Amino acid sequence: MDRKKRVEELKRKNRIAVLCRRWNDYGIKISIDSFLSQRETIAIQKDIINMLDILDVHHKSMIYSKTENVLNKYKKELFHYIDDDERYVFFLKKSTDYGAVVINGNTLKENMDFIIGESEYFNNTCCIFCCTESVVSGICMWLGEYDNRIYVW
Asked: Mind listing the pLDDT tens digit for each residue in 61-110?
């Protein structure tokens, strides 16, 4: 690995370590090993976007108006969707820079408000992505220009 790539990787690991300490202070045990690589994260993100496109074509998403609180509806759907024993990939702020985190369903349920507060949605983006490691199932929130959607597959 050349020097520039090594420095970038060290910076990435340092940012993850800071994030892990904050989560551990909150009572959520994660480590650097809980994070996917940037390449894995981007591949999963592409798979999710493809799935959302397929669901749109087949009109298989829950659509909410601009006036409804879609974030509260997403939390409710997420809580019912999550299997305590499954592992989930959750996209945090700047996941494509650091890597998405893999967490246990029980941890996600017990700390939902904190974890959702760490999502890309609260970094001025329009979505929250959460799926199983294989992307076979997932639940995402997407705020669009004309409507807000929750996708479950």
From this structure: 888 877 789 999 999 999 999 999 999 999 999 998 999 999 999 999 99
The two three-digit tokens of residue 21, written as one number: 């300490």
Q: Decide: 29 and 106 in contact? Cβ < 8 Å.
A: no
Burial of residue 128 (number of CB atoms within 10 Å: 0-12, 13-18, 19+)? buried
Could you give the CA distance from residue 129 to residue 20 in angstroms, rounded to a whole number? 20
**Residue 118 to residue 98: CA distance in whole angstroms:** 13
- Could you tell me the pTM of the whole model? 0.91
Where are the alpha helices (H) located in the chain, listed in sequence order? 3-26, 38-57, 70-81, 95-98, 105-110, 112-117
**pLDDT tens per residue across span 112-152:** 999 999 998 988 888 999 999 999 999 999 998 888 999 99
53, 64, 115 from 34: Cα distances, Å: 28, 33, 14
